[in-house]
Amino acid sequence: MAEFISKSPAQTEKFGSELGKTLKIGDAVAIFGDMGAGKTVFVRGLASGMGLKAFVSSPTFALVHEYPGNPPLFHFDMYRINSWDDLYSTGFFDYMDTGGVIAVEWSENIEAALPENSIKVIIMQGKSLNERRIVITEDN
Amino acid sequence: MKILAVESSARTASVAIVEDNRLLSEVYTNSGLTHSQTLMPMAEAAFDCAKIEFNSIDLFAVSIGPGSFTGIRIGVAAVKGLAQAYKKPCIGISTLEAISYNLSGQECIVCAVMDARCGQVYTALFESHNGAIERLSSDKAMMITELELQLKGLSSGLPVILAGDGAKICFDVLKDTAVSIKLAPEHIRFQRASSVAFVASKINPDFQDLSANNLVPVYLRAPQAERELRIRNEMK
């Protein structure tokens, strides 16, 4: 388990980028955190750490954004996912077979369906308004 | 009668052309879920190899589920579009029934089983006997533990063979239990378009409406009700 204190979105992105550099095919990053915590900023960091030149934005409405590369990054947002049927129809389970890295915002909503070896990233409010506590847990 | 069959219900994908119970060509891949990119080139290759014209196909057949949401939609949409454009009949085949045909000619119970994720499977039982396949149970989604109970209840004396993309997962879970099962070998374990075509060739077209309008995917609801998707615990 690793813990970081971020004082700004730029720092959150930097922590994401550090994690992004270590990711390989089949990895899943499950991100937890409230509205405005910096989840999308963290994923932007993941993408740049993976060497992807993608425009990263929140997939709240599209459900998933694909950023091509080797490996590609599949960026999910589960904010509007309320049931197993919803989840099935996002193609989430299919993406896990596609050969890429998966990043999941609002993992709270689908926690029971997360892959077993997911890397968990929990972003919490810090001591001040702009401070975030970021806890990263890797099971193995 | 020439049948073009398409199978893209899970990780594998294949296209086959069968004429009067003879397999003319079959293209198969098991290299990741990129069916939207590979399916049409595979169909093209199947036609090239069989040296027949697209327009000479009499019937389209497609595996309509259960299975991967994306995979089934790709296969069904492709066949629906082709059948509509060429004004040909088309037929949807249960993915599990097609899997059972991989073992036709054997004397056994086929447990067709597909991975539905999170400890669940799509499954149905068939009896393969005297060269014919007879369905014993309808397509269902269930937990692997439930399938175990079902298999324990079998009393036909025939060997039970697991086939389908969920066969290995089930075999690994069940091999050390009281259930006596065998795992279909790799070359006949997975979904095959040729098996889809052979099921289609057995169906009497007089009893079916084979217009493209009626072709729809079949999604089976998985029984996750006992497990909530959102785990309600307070995070530290």
Q: How is the CATH topology of chain A named?
A: Rossmann fold
CATH architecture of chain A: 3-Layer(aba) Sandwich
Tell me the span between the first and last alpha carbons of chain B: 65 Å
> Could you give a short account of the major beta sheet of chain B?
6 strands, mixed
What helical percentage do the residues of chain A reach?
Answer: 10-25%
Task: Report the largest inter-chain contact.
Answer: A-B, 23 and 20 residues
Rg calculated over all Cα atoms of chain B: 18 Å
Unreliable spans of chain B: none
End-to-end C-alpha gap of chain A: 10 Å
The overall average pLDDT of chain A, rounded, is 94
- Tell me the overall shape of chain A: globular
Give the helices and strands, then pairings.
The complex is a heterodimer of chains A (140) and B (236).
Chain A: E1 2-6, H1 9-20, E2 28-32, H2 39-49, E3 64-67, E4 73-77, H3 84-88, H4 92-95, E5 101-105, E6 119-125, E7 132-138
Parallel strand pairs in A: 2-5, 2-6, 4-5
Antiparallel strand pairs in A: 1-7, 3-4, 6-7
Helix pairs in contact in A: 1-2
Chain B: E1 2-7, E2 13-19, E3 22-29, H1 35-50, E4 59-63, H2 69-85, E5 90-93, H3 95-101, E6 108-115, E7 120-129, E8 132-135, E9 140-143, H4 144-152, E10 160-163, H5 167-174, E11 182-183, H6 186-189, H7 193-202
Parallel strand pairs in B: 1-4, 4-5, 6-10, 10-11
Antiparallel strand pairs in B: 1-2, 2-3, 6-7, 7-8, 7-9
Helix pairs in contact in B: 1-2, 3-7
